[in-house]
Amino acid sequence: MARSKIALIGAGQIGGTLAHLAGLKELGDVVLFDIADGIPQGKGLDIAESAPVDGFDAKFSGASDYAAIEGADVIIVTAGVPRKPGMSRDDLIGINLKVMESVGQGIKQYAPNAFVICITNPLDAMVWALQKFSGLPTNKIVGMAGVLDSARFRHFLADEFKVSVEDVTAFVLGGHGDDMVPLVRYSTVAGVPLPDLVKLGWTTQEKLDAMVERTRKGGGEIVNLLKTGSAFYAPAASAIAMAESYLRDKKRVLPCAAHLSGQYGIDGLFIGVPIVIGAEGVERVLEVEFNPDEKAMFDKSIASVKGLIEACKGINGALA
Ligand code: APR
Known about the structure:
By secondary structure, the chain is an alpha/beta fold. The protein has helices at residues 13-24, 39-54, 93-110, 123-134, 146-161, 194-199, 205-216, 218-226, 233-247, 292-315, and strands spanning 5-9, 29-33, 60-63, 74-77, 115-118, 141-143, 168-173, 181-189, 192-193, 252-261, 267-278, 281-285. The protein folds into 2 domains: 5-144, 3-Layer(aba) Sandwich (Rossmann fold); 146-314, Lactate dehydrogenase/glycoside hydrolase, family 4, C-terminal (L-2-Hydroxyisocaproate Dehydrogenase, Chain A, domain 2, Alpha-Beta Complex).
């Protein structure tokens, strides 16, 4: 059986890390695409030269022509600009919306059967726009945010409880902004929900609240430390988990920005919710119940995403 083809549109910090991880996990042959000629070729060659040392078989190539993505099975989109200190994800909308238009056209022409994972921010609006520009079926395009936000929360929790990150599960839903919704009731250590762990004295409500807040601002914390760009290791690892679930039909249940058509009372938006990713793409949306506080947080997050969509429509009339 031929190897899968993975196209990475954007070969910057996240794109390069994605290529390396895809190689290490032998997910398939990798094409890096970028408008900055030389970068995708250079990163591809560099990673290919690491393969004999680490012992993985995959081909790497770089391109600045969309024809190179032809027939890709999976496409991961990071093309665009990242945040700098003082910027919110929403400040990127004008530039990155234009980028999504050209990426969408490239996908439509050369890889309309691919499973597409969008990472470019502001995520929930960019994945919505990319679906419109590419015309992809809504089960074949998702945004990467929830896996990353949940991973950040899991890291903070494991650190606080002094337990393995493997035994901590967490759900962070809603939009990928500062009003995302970390669901404490559905987050556990080995199946024990966090509120029970507060009762058991493993942590205090104040500390838990602080970890929730740190999760919400997790992206900004990295931007402020790096100063020259935004996070890339954890975002890349998160998208690779999603790609692997599709390519290997693992049917993992992962929080992703998925198209909703009535679930959670929402129609026509991409919002972070738990989904099953398998060979059919988005195979199922898992609808969890909210208590009134969670519902209020979720509604606030939805309102922010709707605001971004309206801004996109204002910038590009074709989306209205
Ligand atoms: N087509 C293809 N590539 C493009 C285009 C375009 N129209 N415009 C920009 N790029 C490329 C840039 O040349 C750069 O190599 O996208 C790459 C982005 O890489 P970085 O600047 O290193 O950004 P990165 O950290 O990888 O983040 C990319 O993901 O998390 C989000 O907010 C982040 O939107 C940003 C994206």
